[in-house]
Amino acid sequence: MNFIQAILMGIVQGLSEFLPISSSAHLVFTSNFYKVFKGIEIVQQSSEEVFFDIMVHLGTLIAVVIFFRKDIIQILKAMWTALKTKNWSNPEAKIGLYIIAGTIVTIALALPINEIAEKLVYTPNIVGILLFITGFTLLYSEYMSKNIPAKKDTVDLTTSILIGLAQGLAALPGFSRSGWTIATGLFCGLDRTTAARYSFLLSIPIILGASMVYPLVKIDIHEALQYNWEAIIAGTIVSGAVGYLCIKYFMKFISKFSLAIFGYYCLIAGLATAIFFTMYK
Questions:
Q1: What Å distances lie between residue 164 and 56, 90, 105, 185, 243, CA to CA?
Q2: What percentage of the chain exceeds 90 in pLDDT?
Q3: What is the pLDDT of residues 103-162, one digit of tens each?
Q4: Number of domains within the chain
Q5: What domain range includes position 39?
Q6: CA nearest 76: which of 112, 100, 40?
Q7: CB within 8 Å of 12: residues ≥ 6 apart
Q8: Other C-beta atoms within 10 Å of 144: how many?
Q9: Residue 18, pLDDT score
Q10: If DSSP codes are grouped into helix, strand and coil, which group holds residue 61?
């Protein structure tokens, strides 16, 4: 991991984490394109590369926490009040419970497929196919959403569970986490702004958990001391800064426009990368 590669991947992560185009797919593509043009064999990622992926996700997590800090504080206050009064009628308190439920569902689905997800990191042609499927899903969700006249601006338990399942499935690189969760929200009748807001809030526990658990379980301390920490820290800061700007403008975009442009992008990018890496092999 060198400095230029870290900055480049930090930018890619910041841009693609909150846009429905799969940040994990774009990190895979960026890393493997870099290897192709440097003449490096595409093999399983080193522990440093895997750790770097976790860190740039942590950078974008910080971005979403800062952007939605008022929402998070309101939810935590409402849940604390509900615990004391045993009255969970407050909508913000319910959102907190739904986020917990969605996170549990996500973990239950993501853990069994985690090994498959890790292997896909060094099979970018298959990741391209999964990105193509994401594009189709986005376009279909927009089509179905147009047939739902009355859009909901609140999340219920059933919707939270279905969105949690979508987030768990998005453990596979190429299946966009924000894309699949927002699309599922649209399928369930949510308006775009509500679906996007809940999608971003739901990402907080799972990214935080992955950022804490993975280093403790799989990273060897002696190996970690040899990492290029300057590059890792720089990439993390860049991903957070770019991610914050991306959230800011994406929330404005999604309130007025459809996800179709991202759907078409995923179709084209997925097909192109699948063909490229299949031919390269």
A1: 22, 22, 5, 10, 22
A2: 60
A3: 999 999 999 998 888 888 778 899 999 999 999 999 999 898 888 876 788 899 999 999
A4: 1
A5: 3-280
A6: 100
A7: 23, 26, 27, 30
A8: 13
A9: 87
A10: helix
* H helices present in the chain, as ranges: 3-16, 23-38, 47-67, 69-85, 91-120, 124-146, 157-169, 177-187, 192-218, 221-224, 229-254, 260-280
Query: Regarding predicted confidence, which is higher, 35 or 25?
Result: 25
Burial classification of residue 113, based on how many CB atoms lie within 10 Å of its CB (0-12 exposed, 13-18 middle, 19 or more buried): middle
Task: Tell me the residue type at 88.
Answer: W
Residue 8 CA: distances (Å) to CA of 3, 12, 21, 124, 177: 9, 6, 17, 18, 21
Q: Among 41-45, 85-89, 97-101, 153-157, which range has the highest average pLDDT?
A: 97-101
The pTM score is 0.88
Are the beta carbons of 26 and 34 closer than 8 angstroms? no
d(CA 101, CA 160): 7
Within a 13 Å sphere around the CA of 273, how many CA atoms are in the beta-carbon half?
27
Matching residue, tokens 């399983």: 44
Q: What DSSP string describes 225-270?
A: TTS-HHHHHHHHHHHHHHHHHHHHHHHHHHTTS-SHHHHHHHHHHH
